[in-house]
Description:
29% of the residues lie in helices and 14% in strands. By secondary structure, it is α+β, with helices and mostly antiparallel strands.
Amino acid sequence: MSLKINELCVNCDVCEPACPNKAISQGPDIYVIDPALCTECVGHFDEPQCVVVCPVECIDPDLEHPETQVQLLAKLARLQAGDA
């Protein structure tokens, strides 16, 4: 499942560089996560790095984009194939 940054975001800038898939960008008011790029760091790390570094705990599961571990790995493979 993709992750989502909620309204508690203070725009501290630490999550964007922590994302290995470049799924995080500055939105109009707060940072946003692109669900097409977010793999919850599956295939990179044991836990989502944005969640690890977030000082205000404003990153939640995006219930509108449910995905299994297998689907997240397949998404990662597609993303990596696109980089090649």
